[in-house]
Amino acid sequence: MKHLISSVPGTTAAAGKRADTSASRVRSGTAGEAAGSAAGFADPSFSADLIAWQKQHGRHALPWQNTHDAYRIWLSEIMLQQTQVATVIPYYERFLQSFPTVADLANAPASMVMEHWAGLGYYTRARNLHACARRVLAEHGGQFPQDPALLADLPGIGRSTAAAIAAFAYGVRAAILDGNVKRVFARVFGIDQFPGTKAVEEQLWQRAEALLPAQDIQAYTQGLMDLGATLCTRSKPACAACPMRERCIALRDNRVDELPVRKPKKAIPQKFAIMLVVVHQDQVLLLQRPTLGIWADLLSLPELDGHAANPTKFDRARAEAMLAPFGNIDQIRQLDTISHGFTHFKLEIQPYLVSLIKRHAFASQVEHQWINQADVAKAALPAPIKKLLMDLNRQQQLVLSFQP
User: Fold this and answer.
1) Confidence of residue 37 (pLDDT cuts 50, 70, 90)
2) How confident is the model at residue 19, as a pLDDT?
3) What are the chain's domains?
4) Is 77 known to be catalytic?
């Protein structure tokens, strides 16, 4: 998106004067704010400039916009948590095709919900999504409540998401404070402390409440989201096109790359797993993962040692013992290592392709299931496991290399 500096609201001489006044108030960042009240952060010109910019330059054609349907707004807000818009759109559209109403989602089996979510990541969101839909149906007659406090009481909906739903669906005057908004505030107001600490976050909430406009709450809320997502981005922000550039302390002090202050880095632990791609004819053996832990409730590959702190060597005898209920091993071949990052650790997966000579019946092993290779694409699998199996399918290795 290209903007001329002279065409962006909030760039007049008067705006510059407002910026000087604002800058003098917040020059020291959060250091002098602890004793202040939310009223001390009030600045009607901030919301006025942001609303004017959003109406002219903001996003207006996303699939979940131009509606007051709380279900659609809620669905998009949950999907957009920690996920890019471009990634969310196809998932959002598929969800609405299969679950057009909150009742449809609530009444769907959990496995179907997970299948639709597979690949989007952060799978706790999917479980909370399903639980939330059921609560809305059971406790609110299928209608999302207007009160942000009641919304925040539902599974998977925090304070900021509740405010966004209430604002967009019902026009409720409520403040949001997601990661994008924290970044905008930190730069514009020169907040030079890590925004994730409790004290700083509370001050940010006070500021967010104080800056709320008296009207046009939808445009203001969308403007904060648009500003953080399209201009005031984490890297390479488009400061020249920003409606807040005349008042932005980070830009004035050449600290845009420094703010917001980043969380101190900690060493990310490494874990290791040996996974078995067990095939027989045109089917692959999958494991239903537990309801807790990573990839909860998804299908995945059998693991020889679980997630270990140190790498272990493949032991054919142990693999044969583990797979004995399913059949006798014919051939085993080591595949390329896969690295996958989670929020709190990195996982190195060493997969082995295993063919069975003969498959045994195992009616009691309900946590395992065989699926056709053709069904891998739509199965509820973690993204790296689905990619591995689909790559093998495309290379025809599952069929051609391991005929029984």
Assistant:
1) low
2) 37
3) 5-252 (1.10.340.30), 270-400 (3.90.79.10)
4) yes
Hey, what are 226's tokens? Answer: 């648009």
The residue among 81, 82, 80, 47 whose CA lies nearest residue 65 is: 80
Measured in whole angstroms, the distance separating CA 190 from the mean position of its chain's CA atoms is 27
- Cβ contact 73:237 at 8 Å: no
Euclidean distance between CA atoms 324 and 326, whole angstroms: 5
Q: List the structure tokens of 251.
A: 């830009």
Q: In the chain, pLDDT over 70 holds for what percent of residues? A: 87
Q: Extract the tokens encoding 303.
A: 């693991």
Rounded to whole angstroms, how far apart are CA atoms 152 and 204?
19
Specify whether the CB–CB gap between 41 and 141 falls below 8 A.
no
364, pLDDT greater than 70: no
Question: Is residue 154 within 8 Å of 132, Cβ to Cβ?
Answer: yes
Range in 27-36, 40-49, 166-175 with the lowest mean pLDDT: 27-36
Q: H or E element: which one contains 331?
A: strand 327-334
Reported pTM: 0.69
Annotated active-site residue in 33, 77, 115, 246: 77
Give SS3 for 351.
strand
